[in-house]
Amino acid sequence: MNTNNPLGKLKKVELREGWKHEASNFTRWLAEEENLLLLGDEIGFDIKLVQIEAAVGSFNVDILAEEENSGRKIIIENQLEVTNHDHLGKIITYASGYDAKIIVWVVKDVREEHRQAVDWLNEHTDEDTEFYLVKIELWQIENSPYAPKFEIISKPNDWTKAVRSSADTGELTDTKVKQLDFWTQFKEYAKKRQTKLHMQKSYPQHWTNISIGSSDAHIALTINSRESSFGVELYIPDNKELYQKLFGSKEKIETDLEEKAEWMELPTKKASRVRILTTGNFDDASKWEDVFEWLLNEAEKFHKVFPKYIKLEK
Questions:
Q1: What number of H helices and E strands is found in the chain?
Q2: In 3-state terms, what secondary structure has residue 15?
Q3: Does 120 map to a domain?
Q4: Is residue 209 part of a domain?
Q5: Residue 220 and residue 275: Cα distance in Å, rounded?
Q6: Which of 21, 155, 224, 298 is the most buried (most CB within 10 A)?
Q7: What distance in Å separates the CA atoms of residue 281 and residue 284, rounded to the nearest whole number?
């Protein structure tokens, strides 16, 4: 070993050394934007804070949030101790009170019976409801600042749940199964590329969304198997004024993108789009990695370019 570059010793720190009080210290720390981003990176969602200590009858959920792209309600319950029955009951109560679709239980450590309970909930609830049991640890190198580390202990099986849900509703088709497989593999490819983009969970559908930090627009990646094409687009659900302002900067935006885009105001509809397409055979899975590379490269350009123009319009 090179003695000129000595290695520090990594040591685990008790959570109470970092946060003396669960509600006034840890919950407020976790509710900060950068820390919700850390948690979101682990579970695969962009989490936007709604309220701390939100009331549910005579109880209060630690953090009420929402998924940035979809607006789906998220509840986060914290426990700087080992899991117990009381908190298991609370997460179910809070989920029902807010009709939450994403339930996150952040804990110091996990009893096996509670891991099994969360697994059971994921196996027996519909595709839209997801339970995450997440362990948090604090680590330190020598006298460095404490570093938090999230680790998922239990989460939904995206593939099994989506396929079962589609089968139950009679909507399961070969195309939907292949779409789910495509987006699942794309997420794995993006992870290997160490992209900074936040991918949503995989669904059996022809699109997937990526947040750009704005409630007015997001990036959508699309599959069109009938026309043998794939697309990357800025999707504006309901803001024609934003579209027009972006269109006013069309030349600058396309210069930054280094390519021409298709500008689609869609005047008879609420939504508007700015998209770029490429050709490809969705049925040939052996060619998917080439498509993954194109989708990711284009999505990263969109993510870099459009937010600065959207912010200028605020």
A1: 10, 12
A2: helix
A3: yes
A4: yes
A5: 9
A6: 298
A7: 6
Collapsed DSSP state (helix, strand, coil) of residue 246? helix
According to DSSP, the β-strands at 229-236 and 272-279 are: antiparallel
Inter-residue contact 98 to 65 (CB < 8 Å): no
Whether the pTM exceeds 0.85: the reply is: no
Kindly list the strands in the beta sheet with 272-279, ordered across the sheet, starting from the edge strand earlier in the chain.
207-211, 218-224, 229-236, 272-279, 262-264
Q: What are the tens digits of pLDDT across the range 42-60?
A: 888 889 899 999 988 888 9
Residues 149 and 167 in one domain: no
Q: Judge whether 234 and 211 are in contact, CB under 8 Å.
A: no
**Rounded Cα distance, 134 and 93, in Å:** 19
Q: Which residues partner with 234 through β-bridges?
A: 219, 274
Give yes or no for a contact between 189 and 289, defined as CB atoms under 8 angstroms apart.
yes
- Tell which phi-psi region holds residue 53, choosing left (phi > 0), alpha (psi between -120 and 50) or beta: left
Q: Both 177 and 126 in a single domain?
A: no
Q: Note whether 186 and 295 are within 8 A (CB).
A: yes
Amino acid identity, position 262: E
5 domain-assigned? no
Residue span of the structural domain in which 195 resides: 160-312
Report whether 188 contacts 175 (CB < 8 A). no
For helices 288-312 and 240-248, angle between their N-to-C axes, nearest 10 degrees: 90
Residue 243 forms part of a structural domain: yes
Q: pLDDT tens digits, residue range 75-133? A: 999 999 999 999 999 999 999 999 999 999 999 999 999 999 999 999 888 777 899 99
Task: Report the b/e string of 160-176 with b at 16+ CB within 10 A.
Answer: ebbbebbeeeeebeebb
23, 43, 20: which is closest to 31 by C-alpha?
23
